[in-house]
UniProtKB/TrEMBL annotation:
Name of the protein this chain belongs to: Transposase
One Pfam family from the record: HTH_21
Record-level GO BP terms: DNA integration
MF-aspect GO terms: nucleic acid binding
Occurrences of domain Integrase catalytic (ranges): 112-290
Physiological role: Involved in the transposition of the insertion sequence.
InterPro entries (alphabetical): HTH-like_dom, Integrase_cat-core, RNaseH-like_sf, RNaseH_sf, Transpos_IS3, Transposase_IS3/IS150/IS904
Lineage start: Bacteria, Bacillati, Actinomycetota, Actinomycetes, Kitasatosporales
Highest taxon, organism lineage: Bacteria
């Protein structure tokens, strides 16, 4: 109906409104009511265009990965009092969408004779203190030179990647190097739980010796039970969807992109919903914990 009213508005200098309304079978009162609200509609459209610009900037900054929840959270953090349904509508009208995770093919190959550690988490992937619970896993990245393997350790208090390592193999030294990185950063506390699956890299003597040296406790989920290590696997799902590239020309390029994703985006800028503090980046969550300890002291 708006198109009919717009036609009448355009032709009313040539023909009378009464004649146009009669020919188009609309009430004159309805046309005048539409005309009186035109200024308000233009103001709303201008406001939507301005909001769409803000959303586009945030979407680009998120590497084209944020959907409605995180875009809305970013806008609120910037001081915009905007309804989530409005954000959803504007994004839908402009075709702005986040990424959807795909199912990941696992790398885990259980050791045949190794004795697994007890599961100390029981699928409770939360932590009330920094550096007390880690979740580790390995994934592989496709390059034209062959696979690039990535091992990570994730702090369950913040979901921050505190240690990681990349190589052209997935021997035990890969996960040990990632663990040493986390320890060298001073992010681990005595008796911290290091949880993983039962892959041969995690049941190795090399990793167990390093855990003993660092004073950490080892924990493992069950064989072929992906939900027993869901937090670590969730990070890899985020990485592979949000980094965008499916295959790199060489390992060096893949290394650089993964490093940038972890250090400049995921740890420092990517929002996740904390149960008490709302949407924050892992670095901001860590700072909240540290501030809480400083105040308590």
């Amino acid at each position: 109906m708006s198109a009919v009213y717009a036609f009448i508005e355009a032709e009313r200098t040539t023909h009378t409104v009464a004649l146009l309304c009669q020919l188009l079978k609309v009430a004159r009162s309805s046309f005048y009511a539409w005309r009186s609200g035109e200024q308000a509609r233009r103001a709303r459209q201008a406001a939507d265009d301005a909001l769409a610009h803000e959303i586009t900037v945030l979407h680009i900054a998120s590497r084209h990965t944020y959907g409605v929840p995180r875009i809305h959270a970013e806008l609120r953090r910037l001081g915009h009092r905007v309804n989530r349904k409005r954000v959803e509508r504007v994004m839908r009208e402009r075709g702005i969408t986040g990424v959807t995770r795909r199912r990941r093919r696992g790398l885990t190959r259980p050791a045949k004779r190794a004795v697994p550690a007890v599961d100390l988490l029981g699928r409770d992937f939360t932590a009330s203190e920094l550096g007390t619970r880690l979740a580790g896993d390995i994934t592989f990245i496709a390059t034209d030179e062959g696979w690039l393997y990535l091992a990570t350790w994730l702090d369950l208090a913040t979901r921050e990647i505190v240690g990681y390592s990349m190589a052209d193999h997935h021997r035990a030294s890969l996960v040990v190097d990632a663990l040493v990185m986390a320890a060298d950063r001073g992010r681990l506390r005595p008796c911290c739980i290091a949880h993983s699956d039962r892959g041969s890299e995690y049941t190795s003597d090399e990793l167990r010796r390093e855990l003993h040296r660092l004073g950490l406790r080892q924990s493992m989920g069950r064989t072929e039970a992906c939900f027993d290590n869901a937090a670590a696997e969730s990070f890899f799902a985020v990485l592979k969807e949000e980094i965008g590239t499916r295959r790199w020309p060489d390992r060096a390029t893949a290394r650089a992109e993964i490093f940038a994703f972890i250090e400049t985006f995921y740890n420092r800028r990517r929002l996740r919903k904390h149960p008490h503090w709302g949407y924050l980046a892992p670095l901001e969550i860590r700072q909240r914990y540290e501030q809480g300890h400083a105040l308590a002291a």
